[in-house]
Amino acid sequence: MADGRSPQGISGENLLYLTDEQLRQGIEAMFFAYRGFTADPDRILADHCYGRAHHRAIHFINRAPGTTVNNLLRILGVTKQSLNRVLRTLVEDGLVESRIGAQDKRERHLYLTEAGAALESQLSDAQRARMRTAYREAGPEAVAGFRKVLEAMMDADMRRAYKRLKEQAG
Amino acid sequence: MADGRSPQGISGENLLYLTDEQLRQGIEAMFFAYRGFTADPDRILADHCYGRAHHRAIHFINRAPGTTVNNLLRILGVTKQSLNRVLRTLVEDGLVESRIGAQDKRERHLYLTEAGAALESQLSDAQRARMRTAYREAGPEAVAGFRKVLEAMMDADMRRAYKRLKEQAG
DNA sequence: TGTATACGTCAGCCTTGTTGACATTCCAAG
DNA sequence: CTTGGAATGTCAACAAGGCTGACGTATACA
User: Fold this and answer.
1) How far apart are the CA of A77 and the nearest CA of chain B, in angstroms?
2) Which residues of B, range 57-116, sit inside 8 Å of A by Cβ?
3) What are the sequence ranges of the domains in chain B?
4) B24 SS3 class
5) What Gene3D superfamilies would the database entry show (chains A, B) (predicted)?
6) Which of A77, A146, A166 sits opposite B149 (nearest CB)?
């Protein structure tokens, strides 16, 4: 690895895209792209005195209405204290509704209110617009590859969560 | 857009990958993948009592040795106060050396020390390993598409910074 | 009845971002 | 030579959003 090549690059096949330099460019691309990815929602959120954490909660509540707190916790990968702080302000501000479960009354099922859905679609529109431009610029084959690599980059449990969401509404 | 299709999806061409649902899946893929992307370095950093901000500084100093603080500031997109705090601890801990500029003595040129380079390569190895696995799993065409979409997702100034780094050491 | 689960909450800590104010050093233009 | 502005560093204060630990309540279930 000290020669700037991955072990695979040395063995037989011509895997130039696996050189350390190519991998590093991929790493930097992820870094810079993620900044672009969050830039538009961040601006909107700032106007509403919210942060990225609120966006994430709103996004996944919209994606899976009626989801429980525990479920959301697993998807977001934060502690319940962190999530609760965000969730509490969203409920107080009337963007999220928390309903006690019908079967299991310990659970709280989360829903966006009308106001919550309005903010969600404002954020979502902005982020999709960026995505759409990038997708159109890159073309369908590139998009397929993009998603393939991203999926391969996820931790196993996140990949499961991702696929579950896809099937749910795909 | 209320019908779940992008405007482009309606006009003539069959651009199914631009439906709102497809775009949303891309958004979620970015979110989950970025978690995986940072997971390995984060674990290593925690052992050293550092955070992601230290990683970013170390990465780009390694990438462009002798870079100035201002240059780093632009690349990282944070305030000088934020960067300075991180940089100060790295200098105090002997991972980064800050040399006063030869031509312009106001500038500080940043270099990794041996210890800094050691941590950099530990972090880098871990992150590259994840990237390599993902790349190998997805294949060369997917990788090309991945990078194409990421580049298209960046803000203009970040795309310039990204390309400059690529040319520098590509 | 006792244990486990789901959720909320309080307190405190850390990292990492922000703004504002101010000092220093130095280049360059007048 | 002086002065304006750029590059850098530093102090202070603050906020978001992570974290841990501890504790309480309601519910479910064996």
Assistant:
1) 9
2) 59, 63, 77
3) 7-138
4) helix
5) Winged helix-like DNA-binding domain superfamily/Winged helix DNA-binding domain
6) A146
Q: Give the dihedral of Cα atoms A164, A165, A168, B3; nearest 10 deg.
A: -160
**CB contact (8 A) between residue B151 and residue A39:** no
**For B99-127, how does the pLDDT look when each residue is reduced to its tens digit (9 = 90+)?**
988 888 889 999 999 999 999 999 999 99
- Amino acid letter at B110? L
Q: How confident is the model at residue A13, as a pLDDT? A: 64
Q: Which of A3, A135, A141, A159 to mutate to test the interface with B (most CBs of B within 10 A)?
A: A135
Tell me the shortest Cα–Cα distance from B88 to chain A, in angstroms.
Answer: 23
Tokens of B109: 């040129």
Contact (CB<8Å) A132/B23: yes
Q: Which tens digit of pLDDT belongs to each residue from A121-133?
A: 999 999 999 999 9
d(CA A5, CA A9): 6
Q: Give the model's pLDDT for residue B74.
A: 93
Q: What is the mean pLDDT of residues A43-56?
A: 96
Kindly report the CATH class assigned to A43-138: mainly alpha
C1'-nearest nucleotide to the CA of A51: D16
Judged against a pLDDT cut of 90, whether residue A10 lies above it is answered with no
Q: What percent of chain B has pLDDT over 70?
A: 92
Distance (Å) from the alpha carbon of B116 to chain A's nearest alpha carbon: 16
Structure ipTM: 0.93
Q: Please tell me whether any atom of strand D lies within 7 Å of the Cβ of B80.
A: yes
